[in-house]
Amino acid sequence: MERRTIGAAALAVGAVGLGCMPMSWAYSTSRQRGDESLRAVHRALDLGSCLLDTADMYGPFTNELLLGRVLKERRPDAFVSTKAGLLVGDQHIVANGRPGYVKRACDASLRRLQTDVIDLYQLHRADPEIPVEETWGAMAELVRAGKVRALGLCAVGARSSRRAGARLHDATIRQLERVQQVFPVSAVEAELSVWSPQALEALLPWCAARGVGFLAAMPLGNGFLTGTLTPGEGFEPDDLRARHPRFTAEMMAANQPIVAGLRRVAARHGAGVTPAQVALAWVLAQGGQVIPVPGAKRERWVTENAAAAALRLTPEDLTEVAALPGAVGSWD
After folding, report:
1. CA distances from 9 to 5, 119, 139, 183, 185 (A)
2. Omega within 30 of 0 (cis) for the link into 60
3. Do 297 and 54 form a contact (C-beta atoms < 8 A)?
4. Alpha helix locations (H) across 34-161?
5. 10/147 Cα distance (integer angstroms)
6. pLDDT confidence of residue 238
7. Measuring CA to CA, which residue among 299, 317, 286, 173 is closest to residue 219?
8. Whole-number Cα distances in Å, 110 to 81, 83, 116, 321, 323
9. Segment holding 88, helix H or strand E
10. pTM
């Protein structure tokens, strides 16, 4: 698989990563099976999708424990990205950026992951009660201690960052400007997909201008861009899509032209090419520092996603995708 470089630390990874959250959290609990997920992770590593993206809050904790079972056997094959800064309580999630907590969280993640170093340690969310420079300074100390190789920042959520007249990622860019003065940012993780392209406006250019890697979260639109979801089929109550305004039956039906457009492009590249692969190839085409991290928990989907790294969209393909209608339904 093509290799791409993550930021200031010049860390090389496969062009398509693996988002591990669906294996343990937020998507259809009844379909989460540990052995199946383990096979999916092994398959990803076999194919060169070495970036494994997780967080301590996924589960909480169970996602890191699952990955630890693979890393115990195959640590040299993997690039481990995990996150800290969010605590999961009963029906709520809160930020904790206290330096002491971040250091304890790192040690706990290292134990669960069964490794002595985290390749990319990301701040999941800044704590509004703690200056982000203090949190980032504690994370920098983890690099100097040899527990972490590089630092990253996750973008502020869409619902919490919008103000009148503000662009979606203005708050994230302000945070990045502040922490960059403390210790180099190697990567930013934010949503980027055919139906959520807002990062192209300011956030991705900010990263490109500074040599910062960009991890594209939800590059398949929470599964919608795969073309495998049926409008009105419904989701399990614990599935995040059950509360997402783009996943009502009405909005899913209204957004079908996006999937139809991806199918048209896929058909031009051969019978075996899927809408999901076109969606991932579009993300890859947005810049050499962009690494999509599609979530998957089955070998089949991991294999399909990894193959997207070899799909080269033509200028005509990219023009057609750019002309697709915008997604209907949003948080705003």
Report:
1. 9, 10, 15, 11, 9
2. yes
3. no
4. 34-47, 62-74, 99-113, 132-144, 158-161
5. 17
6. 79
7. 286
8. 11, 11, 6, 41, 45
9. strand 86-89
10. 0.94
- DSSP H stretches of helix in 114-156: 132-144
Instruction: State phi, psi for 246 to the nearest 5 degrees.
Output: -85, -5
Residues 180 and 176: their CA atoms lie apart, in Å, by: 6
Q: Measure Cα distances from 10 to 6, 83, 282, 286 in Å.
A: 5, 19, 24, 19
Asked if 227 contacts 274 with a C-beta cutoff of 8 angstroms, the reply is yes
Task: Read off the tokens for 78.
Answer: 């993997």
Residue 235's SS3 state is coil
In tens digits, what is the pLDDT along the chain, a chain of 332 residues? 999 999 877 899 999 999 999 998 656 665 667 899 999 999 999 999 999 999 999 999 999 999 999 999 999 999 999 999 999 877 788 999 999 999 999 999 999 999 999 999 999 999 999 999 999 999 999 999 999 999 999 998 654 444 444 588 999 999 999 999 999 999 999 999 999 999 999 999 999 999 999 999 999 999 999 999 888 787 788 777 888 889 999 999 999 999 999 999 999 999 999 999 999 999 999 999 999 999 999 999 999 999 999 999 999 999 999 999 999 987 54
DSSP code string of 290-303: EEE--B--SHHHHH
C-alpha–C-alpha distance, residues 58 and 179, integer Å: 25
Strand order in the sheet with 148-154: 18-19, 51-53, 79-84, 118-123, 148-154, 187-191, 213-217, 290-292
* Share in percent of the chain as helix, strand, coil (round to 5): 45, 15, 40
Residue 212 · residue 188 · CB < 8 Å: yes
Please give the positions annotated as active site: 58
Q: How many CA atoms lie within 13 A of 143 on its CB side?
A: 20
pLDDT of residue 231: 83
